[in-house]
Amino acid sequence: MADTTHGEGRRASSFPPWLKKTLATLATVAATILGLLFVTFMIGRVMPIDPVLAVIGERATQAQYNQTFRDLGLDKPLLTQFWIYVTDVLRGDLGESIRTGQKVTTDIARVFPATLELATLGTLFGVVLGVPLGVIAAVRRGSWIDQLARFVGLIGYSMPIFWLGLVGLLIFYGILGWVAGPGRLGIFYQGIVEPITGMLLIDSALRGEWAVFRSAFSHIILPASLLGYYSLAYISRMTRSFMLEQLGSEYVITARVKGLSEWQVVWGHAFRNIRIQLITVIALAYANLLEGSVLTEIIFAWPGLGQYITTSLLANDMNSVLGGTIVIGTIFVAINIFSDLLYRFFDPRSK
């Protein structure tokens, strides 16, 4: 009996910890995606929109209505409908858009690069300015620059993004004329660059079309800056909080007693210890910009995923709305997994 127990314990202990964490992560991801699909499925069923009439129109006959009702599988039990819905999504079939007459996946592949480009540039803006601002504010706690950083963060959190967008258009486009207006590209430059990645700044640079690049940059700089300002407010605030905690630690005091320069203490020791926390903060900020740029895209007539979902919702095109929601939710999960992998890479103790 003792030998059996010892053998069982040895087999249990030989199970690799990294495999346990991998399986746990995969199970969490699967449960999250399944929950997302269940929520979107139920939304499609409880919305006060008849999916049959949305397809065939209100002038269809009763026979046409009944046939379409069966073709859509709405005559089947709810559990069977959900199973069909899940299998279709896993195969990459998000249905057909009533508004455009194309596959929802085709539409999303066309509009998502615009959102990706906008959110990426906004996040870069927030990181490049927000991280140094948060560090300096923590080092100079109580000074004017600390007060300025807190004021900038407060404005970023308090002001509605649509209001900032309208004011920005009025000042920088309408009055000063420093940037281009709504849209993604000037009319004269439409169709000149053949898409490679779908992101105009990258594609125009790769093609060597610098006039197109300047036009695209002039259109994107204002909405990206506004999104970046929202991201900056969050990143600078969290960076300041993390740095204040580190600067009050004993190892920082010891480093200063040893005669290390302020640069070495701040950036070589304190900042190095908050990198892991910043990874999660930046990843969340990026995910929030990807899913939360709807109002910005509407104000600036930006042909991205947010505007696509909003336009589809107004047109009662639920396939497009739910398809876009699934894509955004999946991207949010993927970014969180990626940040977790980076966390483990920079912090071996979490492996």
Structure notes:
This protein has helices at residues 2-13, 17-46, 51-56, 62-71, 78-90, 104-139, 144-158, 161-175, 200-207, 210-247, 250-257, 262-270, 275-292, 294-299, 305-314, 318-346. The protein has 351 residues and is an all-alpha fold. The chain folds into two domains: 20-90, no CATH class; 105-350, Orthogonal Bundle (MetI-like fold).
CATH topology of the largest domain: MetI-like fold
Number of domains: 2
Q: What kind of oligomer do you see?
A: single chain
- Please summarize the sheet with the most strands: none
The global form is globular
Count of DSSP H/I helices: 16
Determine the fraction of residues in helical runs and give it as a percent range: over 70%
> What is the fourth-level CATH superfamily of the largest domain?
MetI-like
Mean pLDDT: 82
Element pattern in H and E? HHHHHHHHHHHHHHHH
Spans with pLDDT under 50 lasting ≥5 residues?
8-13
End-to-end gap:
35 Å
- Helix and strand composition category: mainly alpha
Known CATH architecture of the largest domain: Orthogonal Bundle
Report the top-level CATH class of the largest domain.
Mainly Alpha
Total strand segments: 0
Give the amount of beta strand, in percent: under 5%
GO cellular component, one term: plasma membrane
Transmembrane segments: 23-43, 118-139, 151-176, 216-235, 278-302, 322-343
GO molecular function: dipeptide transmembrane transporter activity
Main location: membrane
